[in-house]
């Protein structure tokens, strides 16, 4: 489902697919008690998606050789609180959970978002899209890309997930203009000031019925050489 081309070379990731008709709490039951407490009063589905995403996070941290089993708790606006020396992102949607982590010496902040590869509900596009983004969506549709409006939403969510840990400030849909490109890349131009970076680069793909978007901001002193790896086929 996920592809190495979506992430910087130093990143590690993990994902699971699940049966939505029967939420499984097995991964939730193996979480640290402090992690379980975050959603202790939630419904079964919420506990399941939280447990699966955190399980992915711990697997990715183990591959990275960081974290030492420390709980990944929740901060402002749901931001994951990663162990020292780590940045990362989580996502969960219908039947899919995933996490990505990277060392902060290489990556300053990351975003990961996944959505069903289906058009947005009627009326939603007008509330998330800037006028300059609409011609790009038409170009993607003309090229046969399914649900380009959902792709835009996903890219904006991945942008926000990279933005918030750097600023602890809200970023509205209107506060970033996304240049979605046919080669599987995008650039999010940040329109608010002050901003720690003028833009955030990202990658996207559509696979197995999901739209997936990722973003990464290089650590200070690391060169921003553009998209993370080779162009997606």
TrEMBL record:
Residues annotated for CoA binding in this entry: 46, 54, 91-92, 113, 157, 161, 171
Q: What is this protein called?
A: 4'-phosphopantetheinyl transferase EntD (Siderophore biosynthesis)
| 4'-phosphopantetheinyl transferase domain ranges (all copies) | 110-214
Sorted keywords for this record are:
Magnesium, Metal-binding, Transferase
Domain of life of the organism encoding this protein: Bacteria
InterPro entries linked to this entry:
4-PPantetheinyl_Trfase_dom, 4-PPantetheinyl_Trfase_dom_sf, 4PPT_N, Enbac_synth_compD-like
Task: Name what cofactor the protein needs.
Answer: Mg(2+)
Origin species, per record, is Corynebacterium spheniscorum
One GO biological-process annotation of the entry reads:
enterobactin biosynthetic process
> Taking every annotated instance into account, which residue ranges of this chain make up the domain 4'-phosphopantetheinyl transferase N-terminal?
35-102
Binding positions for Mg(2+)? 113-115
**One cellular component term from this protein's GO annotations in UniProt:** plasma membrane
Q: Which GO terms describe its molecular function?
A: holo-[acyl-carrier-protein] synthase activity; magnesium ion binding
Q: Spell out where the chain crosses the membrane.
A: none
């Amino acid at each position: 489902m996920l592809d190495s081309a979506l992430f910087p070379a130093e990143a590690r990731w993990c994902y699971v697919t699940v049966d939505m008709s029967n939420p499984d709490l097995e991964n939730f039951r193996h979480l640290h008690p402090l992690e379980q407490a975050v959603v202790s009063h939630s419904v079964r589905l919420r506990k399941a998606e939280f447990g699966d995403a955190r399980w992915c996070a711990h697997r990715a941290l183990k591959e990275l050789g960081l974290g030492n089993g420390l709980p990944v708790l929740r901060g402002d606006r749901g931001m994951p609180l990663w162990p020292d020396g780590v940045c990362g992102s989580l996502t969960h949607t219908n039947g899919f959970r995933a996490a990505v982590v990277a060392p902060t010496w290489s990556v300053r902040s990351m975003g990961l978002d996944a959505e069903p590869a289906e058009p947005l509900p009627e009326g939603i596009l007008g509330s998330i899209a800037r006028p300059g983004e609409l011609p790009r969506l038409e170009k993607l549709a003309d090229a046969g890309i399914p649900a380009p409006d959902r792709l835009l939403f996903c890219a904006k969510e991945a942008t926000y997930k990279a933005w918030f840990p750097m600023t602890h400030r809200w970023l509205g849909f209107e506060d970033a203009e996304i240049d979605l490109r046919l080669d599987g890349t995008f650039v999010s131009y940040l329109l608010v000031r002050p901003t720690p970076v003028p833009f955030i680069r990202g990658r996207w793909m559509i696979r197995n019925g999901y739209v997936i978007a990722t973003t990464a901001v290089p650590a200070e002193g690391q060169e921003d050489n553009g998209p993370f790896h080779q162009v997606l086929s």
